[in-house]
Hints:
By secondary structure, the protein is mainly α. It has helices spanning 13-41, 45-50, 54-64, 86-97, 102-129, 131-142, 156-171, 175-185, 192-209, 215-223, 226-239, 244-250, 261-269, 282-304, 309-323, 332-335, 344-350, 355-380, and strands spanning 69-71, 77-79, 256-257, 325-326. The strands form 2 sheets. Strands 1-2 form a two-stranded antiparallel ribbon. A two-stranded antiparallel ribbon has the order 3-4. A hairpin with a 5-residue loop joins β1 and β2. The mean pLDDT is 90.
Amino acid sequence: MTDLETRPARPTLSRAAPALLGYAAVRALGLLALALWSAARDKSAYTLLTARWDSLWYVRVAELGYGYEVRLPNGDVHSNLAFFPLLPWLERLGHAVTPLSYADAGFAVGLLASLAAAWGIFAVADLLYGRRAGVCAVLVWAVLPVGIVQSMAYSESLFTALAAWSLYAVITGRWLTAGALTCAAGLNRPTAVALIAALAVAALLALRERRDGPLRPLAALAIAPLGLVGYLGWVGHEMGDYGGYFALQRGAWAHTFDYGEHTLDVLTSLPVGHFDYLSAFPFADLIGTGVVLLALALLPLLIRERPPAVLVVYTVLTLALVLGSQQIFANVSRYLLPAFPLFLPLAAALRRLTLPQLLLLLGPAALASGSYAGYALFELGVP
Length: 383
């Protein structure tokens, strides 16, 4: 059980400073590892962070707008309409008000968003379990195998920041803030549907229990889906098909909701050495399998803690959306980055350790995360 009523409601920057400094140290270690890999191969680590894979697509949206596409030899189409607009908008803004290029602005947005995400994760954990647990939650999030994505011009850090602060706003009764942040998250990633549903459940519970009055929860409920619905509707209008976004994802991107069939295929094929499933990357898939099993083990622990319902609904639906989809399984670890509430029970347990014990446990994890970043990007070629 958490002692929510006794916790501070304002996670000031000074209160969060140890968590943010620890987070920055872990991420600096990851970037150092990537720099060493780059130097050994006479390549640019910065290019990998700002102008490869999804980051390149986001920069093209920021610079050229929507409408860019690549037609594959088999007739499938990779369209930049598959990429949500919030990150490119921020890249364009950064380019407009600073000397930064679009790619540089994207990198800056990613770094700032990762710090905002770390602060939001701290705020939620601090509210439920205290300051030391907040620091531990941030450090656990930082040392995940795909932590390098938090330092890339990708959408995961931005989405995690919006989700963490939206969940915090719901828990503390700041309904309009929660609605606005959830609306923004819907302009960032399609998995915002989990956040929207979680806010809706929390709003309905508040109405049933007659907390916070009816107007603010209802207003949040009305505002929250506007970003996601608006972008999907606009894409549908542009394509002449209001299911157009999902058609794009099913096509050349091979990303569709299959109720977990692909995930089950990977989890049952990998242990017996069969790699005939879609987009197999055996070592990265092994890491992804470990992350998935860890997530499934932590979920019952989170539920047992009986945190606010909004956290449970958000986490369960995020897991269902990620594990229930066909996708490149090597990417599943980064798709689960926003599911940070899973680590709250672990953080609550780690807060009992002394500082030397915590460093002894998380230090090697930070080194492993940094090393895997270089290996994944240079050897495996997966983001």
